[in-house]
Amino acid sequence: MAQRVLADIDGVVAHLGESGRKARQTLRIAATPLVSSNILPGLFAQFRRSHPHVELRLTDADLNQIQAMVSAGDVDLGLGFFFKQMPGIVRTPVGTFRLMRVAAAGGPQDFSTGSAPWASLQHEALISLPASNPIQKLVETHLAAIGRGTKNGPPSTSSIP
Predict the structure, then answer these.
(1) pLDDT higher for 4 or 55?
(2) What confidence tens digit (pLDDT) does each residue in 29-83 have?
């Protein structure tokens, strides 16, 4: 995934072209805090070694802000978990991720390795993201498929802001 993001950043620089490089040697990137704090530091170091003339400017923002910044031309590239298409914005997957279930070891359903079916969450207390979060919406879709939508199953124990 990191190599794909790096390739996309290289692609944006190439797209700027020679005249773009002379006029602006800054690549403006907006990313969600999760992406900017966990994925980008190592990639930025690699990118700077291969493109020392390009200044990288990173803005932490939420998904809606990132999409608005890309649409307005305030940034050259936006990174985050974008599930919804927007006119005028090209979304390119740069990697995949797996949702993780974290539970106390040795419990009645200890899935410390491998994977667990969604049905194993039927009666578990869950911590959730805000309802508007696209990842939480994806989780809710899977929970609804096992009969445990927001209204039908045990409530989440708390929400992460």
Answers:
(1) 55
(2) 999 888 888 888 888 999 889 888 889 999 999 888 998 899 899 999 999 877 7
CA distance 125 to 128: 10
Block residue for tokens 């409530």: 155
Answer for the pair 59, 76: CB distance below 8 angstroms, yes or no.
Answer: no
CA gap 65, 107 in Å, rounded: 41
Please indicate whether residue 27 or residue 34 has the higher confidence score (pLDDT). Answer: 27
Task: Lay out the sheet containing 55-60: strands in order across.
Answer: 55-60, 26-31, 77-79
Task: For 159, list phi and psi in degrees, rounded to 5.
Answer: -120, 140
What residue ranges in the chain does DSSP mark as E strands?
26-31, 55-60, 77-79, 127-128, 158-159
Query: Which residue, chain included where needed, has tokens 């704090």?
Result: 37
Give CA–CA dist 146/120, Å, rounded: 10
Interior CA angle at 65 toward 136 and 91, to 5°? 70
- What are residue 137's phi and psi, to 5 degrees? -60, -40
CA atoms within 13 A on the CB side of 29: 26
Residues 159, 43: Cα–Cα separation, whole Å: 31
